[in-house]
Amino acid sequence: MDDKEEILNLLRENARLPLADIAAMTKKTPEQVGALIRQLEEEGVILGYKAIVNPEKDGAAKEKVRAEIEIQVTPEREHGFDGIADRIYRFPQVKSLYLMSGGYDLKVVIEGDSLQEVAFFVARKLSTLDGVRSTKTHFFLKTYKENDVLYVEDESDRRQGVMA
């Protein structure tokens, strides 16, 4: 594993690691680590740093409605799926957008303040785009794990019973 990949793996685990700690773990100086991180940022490898917030414990996020939408589209001449994807990811409700293989072409994750807001977005914005043939909406009910992060606390009693 090269230096950049080693640093990326450490930052994936904890983006708040101090440079001194990363330097100690990679046997580099803090200056070398800082230079490598700046290079990764300038190259567009590192796009940003964000906090992972448990929506069940964040009052504002807890009120949000999230949905996954499967979209079948007709690819555009000369642009394929990229042209329609470009129009979709610009909506502020869109949190993620993926080109998929299988029974549908695009998967969109959106967020709204209510079921009605999400429904109106799908009906009035998404499904009316040129090239969209069909949509299928699935609402998120509970998040257990996302991007390798567990959102549930293990509340089981791990004590062993005593036999008399």
Your description of this structure?
This protein starts with a helix and ends in a 14-residue tail after the last strand. With 164 residues, the protein is of the alpha+beta class. It contains six helices and six strands, in the order ααααβαββαβββ. It has a four-stranded antiparallel sheet with strand order 2-3-1-4. Strand 2 (94-99) and strand 3 form a beta hairpin. Helix 1 (3-13) packs across helix 3 and helix 2 (19-26) crosses helix 3 (30-42). It has helices at 3-13, 19-26, 30-42, 59-62, 82-89, 115-126, and strands at 65-73, 94-99, 106-112, 132-139, 145-146, 149-150.
Task: List the topology elements.
Layout: H1 3-13, H2 19-26, H3 30-42, H4 59-62, E1 65-73, H5 82-89, E2 94-99, E3 106-112, H6 115-126, E4 132-139, E5 145-146, E6 149-150
Antiparallel strand pairs: 1-3, 1-4, 2-3, 5-6
Helix pairs in contact: 1-3, 2-3
Distance between the termini: 54 Å
Helix content: 25-40%
User: How many β-strands, per DSSP?
Assistant: 6
Derived from helix and strand composition plus strand pairing, the structural class reads alpha+beta
Summarize this structure briefly:
With 164 residues, the protein is α+β, with helices and mostly antiparallel strands.
